[in-house]
């Protein structure tokens, strides 16, 4: 029987975190400079209300998924919002509950500090992830724009 475990990232996870995040970025056809890897890893362990946080998922002891999330203020509520920024499961374990377990872990972490709104985005072509998201969350209908 396979067992999924989700826990906060630890300093000892650096190599697996880097492998998983690199695979996530590759999926989205993105590359980042070494400086961004370094500062992101540092920020994941920096105390502060608005610093990013992360979870790693293991399946039978092997790292197979990760998520990054962060809290931010809102003009629409007294409580912060939680933005689930990155979510990734190794392709060979997709459909086994890794993504759902990571989303649940973020939701529970947010609830512990009184944050009710957890949200994220995905690319419209990410059909595999969208099947999961349509099952566990409400699609808001908002369309993203940016000034990059």
TrEMBL record:
Domain N-acetyltransferase: 4-148
GO function terms (MF aspect): acyltransferase activity
Lineage summary: Bacteria, Pseudomonadati, Pseudomonadota, Alphaproteobacteria, Hyphomicrobiales
Enzyme class: transferase
Keywords (A to Z) from UniProt: Acyltransferase, Transferase
CDD domains on file: NAT_SF (cd04301)
The protein, known as: GNAT family N-acetyltransferase
Protein's UniProt keywords contain Ribonucleoprotein: no
Coiled coil spans: none
One protein family per Pfam: Acetyltransf_1
Superkingdom field: Bacteria
Enzyme Commission code: 2.3.-.-
Record flagged with keyword Acetylation: no
């Amino acid at each position: 029987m396979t067992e999924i475990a989700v826990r906060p990232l630890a300093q000892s996870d650096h190599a697996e975190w880097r492998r998983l995040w690199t695979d996530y970025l590759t999926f989205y056809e993105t590359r980042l400079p070494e400086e961004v890897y370094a500062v992101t890893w540092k920020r994941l362990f920096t105390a502060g209300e608005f610093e990013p946080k992360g979870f790693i998922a293991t399946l039978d002891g092997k790292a197979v998924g990760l998520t990054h999330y962060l809290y931010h203020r809102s003009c629409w509520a007294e409580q912060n919002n939680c933005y689930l920024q990155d979510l990734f499961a190794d392709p060979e374990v997709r459909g086994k509950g890794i993504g759902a377990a990571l989303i649940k872990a973020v939701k529970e972490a947010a609830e512990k500090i009184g944050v009710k709104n957890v949200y994220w985005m995905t690319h419209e072509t990410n059909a595999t992830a969208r099947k999961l998201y349509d099952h566990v969350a409400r699609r808001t209908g908002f369309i993203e724009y940016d000034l990059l």
